[in-house]
Specification:
By secondary structure, the chain is mainly α. Helices cover 90% and strands 0% of the residues.
């Protein structure tokens, strides 16, 4: 396997890893969003909701890249 093939394999694994790892961040965002709601910090909770949405969108792109790399 040449260097280019190794880089493609590594990039594929990284895209999958990053998407999987984002799941733990999402769980924490939701946990702290709920705490913000309990404390009456509605605007903060709203910002955390937006962060969750963006993280989901980020994962969409990471997983699409992963799929494309897997099909190479």
């Amino acid at each position: 396997m040449d260097k280019q093939d190794k880089d493609i394999l590594k990039l594929s694994k990284l895209c999958k890893h990053w998407a999987d790892h984002n799941g733990s961040h999402k769980e924490n965002f939701i946990k702290w969003r709920n705490i913000a709601i309990e404390k009456g910090l509605e605007s903060i909770a709203g910002q955390l909701d937006k962060a969750v949405e963006m993280l989901d969108k980020c994962n969409e792109f990471l997983l699409a890249a992963y799929q494309d790399l897997e099909e190479m």
